[in-house]
Amino acid sequence: MVARGVHILRTEGFQSAGARTLRFLATRRPFLRVKKPALSPSFLLFNKDGATNARRPLPEDDIALRIPLPSTTDVALPENIAVIVHAFYVDVFQELILYLKNIGQKFQLYVSTSDEIKKKIIIDLCLENGFDNVEVRIFENRGRDIAPKIIGFSDIYEKHEIFLHLHTKKSPHLSLLQGWRDYLLGNLVGSTEVVRSILALFSADQKLGVVYPQHFYPIRGMLNWGFDFETAQALLAKAHWSLSKDSLLEFPSGSMFWGRSAALKPLLDLGLTFDDFPIEAGQVDGTLAHAIERSYLHFAECAGFHWLKVQNSADVRPQGLLTVEKPEDSRILEKVYLPLFEEPGRSDLSMGREYAELRPLRLAKSNNRRPRLNLLLPTIDPLWVFGGISTALKTFDELSAQLLDFDKRIVVLDSPIEPHHLDNFQRYKMNSSDGQAVVFEAFNRIRRMDVRRDDVYISTAWWSEYLRTSIGQFQEKAFGSRSKAVYFIQDYESNFIQWSSRWAIAESTYGFDENVAWLVNSEELSSYMSQRFGRTDQMVVPFRMNETIKRGVKSLPKERIILCYGRPTAARNCFEIVVDGLSLWQQRNPIEASKWQVVFLGENFDTSRIWPVQNGSVPGKVGLEEYAEYLSRASVGVSLMISPHPSYPPLEMAYSGLITISNNYDAKEISNRSENFVALDQVTPDSLALAMERSVKLAEEKIGRVGVQKEIAELPFVGIKYDPWELAEFLRKQSLR
Q1: Domains in the chain, start-ordered, CATH in brackets?
Q2: What is the rounded radius of gyration, in angstroms, for the C-alpha atoms of the chain?
Q3: pLDDT on residue 37
Q4: Nearest by Cα to 644 from 486, 493, 459, 462
Q5: Three-class SS state of 15
Q6: What predicted TM-score, i.e. pTM, was given to this entire model?
């Protein structure tokens, strides 16, 4: 890590090195131990008044769409509209009815009230204002405005595609709420342009279920579950929704909104009656009506719809407004809608604090219907791109070539993206939600990643597969089904993190899912995974020599060079055993050892770490062409891998004619790959030192002779051989729904 810092300092300068260091430390919280993390107020179960606390959107996420929209003239607006008004206060109804003149489309007016006297006044007011298409019903005074609209008019929703809920709202219990009613009406029916804009949103998005005003500013700090959580939880459970207080609380405060009738179906199907509501006694909280008001959006999501908040641009406080030209703009859904089925507090739980790679992604629903192939990678930093990532990128390109009608996106999970990282991705846009080729930086988990219905994902490590399952769950809740996926298994990674929480998470990713294809890297690994997990339907990627390395290996005279794959940060490569074994060999054979150079490739680190190895050097991470030159000249290779995967470097060494020391593991018999292998059954410094003596003796016979390349043998495997076309067809079925 120090060597990498020095490299960045030399190549990019002090400012870049400092910025990258701060970004690294910011996410590696386990190294910055604090006594106790502060408990977010959202986690508190109750507030000081005993009401159930709520998680509200962060200010930067609390976005409303600015209305009216500039361009709605080309949009065909819905005409089958119901306007449902509960008019308990007829004096307010006289004011409210004037707003209805702003609805340019034909609509049917339904009004509820509490007695015959009010009914006559309402009918007269409607006729005076030119509304003869009115039906007035009388209901007992129960359930405020909620019960009359949901129960009293339950029969009318199937007749109308779109509805508007209004009522003659008064809030006599709080003086600061003066102006709330006018604010709501202004943002729903304040002008013909406002109404036209809202109806255009419904026409442009058939999965839009509810549109309501951004919360009246004086009440924003008062929004919580109150004493309604348990009632709402029981109510939503009947619609198969498991409510958590950690999910965001969003609802049309004031109970006025536009909606699509289909979005209320789960609520209407509950069969509630007026008797379910308490007798009116001036309650300000804790009733079924209050619980339903806070649950409208949940019921809409139950039905597969989403919602939007709007705010008239004439209102003050323009912060948090999204401005677009047209109702079909994809940014509307991605920026305004915040799914209520998510649990944002997961980001602050212990797993996310302790293990940076397990921090949950922040996701946003997208209306883009174009299918997209996504690759989840830890990094694209060239310093940390090794064989596994290179193979994943190659596979991604092969599948992209088969899926030409798919967009493609590389999601970088675990490292920041610096400008020079994009040198190999010149045709990719950064962080775009609608580009055909995109690199998306998810490192800091601040930016919300858009998710499409027809997104398909390739995970490349246990933690990216764990995150991929959360994306699948998001798709299922947002779109009704989860996408096909590929789990590119490049090792049995649970063993890297044994007997821990991470081991348990890693192990969980190997469960069977018919929508997830296993793509297993190497024949040996396929046999191991089949034996452990019983999977016989794997697609297997047999070892293939990298073409750049293959072309670069030349027929040169072999020299006394020992090539070591040295990665101190990768425990499975047994760096310490390699160093100690080499030292023991040198001490036991000083005269012979003095003739040989020891070269460590693979990772940049300080030379002091190979002490007391003599004649050693650490070129570290080199390009493929330089690596091929070393392979052409070296005579002995050392590359250990404590896993069922054979690893690329020892196979590349053996192909290039090096006498190569590597190890067996479980069913992995490395010598089956090439006669150039010297295999270790037990991996210790002493066994390595003995293998060095044998390898050097064999290599001495070839010193000065031109090296001969020797093809690596293919081995039997469990499953079918990877075919890009066949795997692409498996993924393509997702986009044909």
Answers
A1: 59-336 (3.90.550), 355-541 (3.40.50.11090), 547-700 (3.40.50.2000)
A2: 33
A3: 56
A4: 493
A5: helix
A6: 0.89
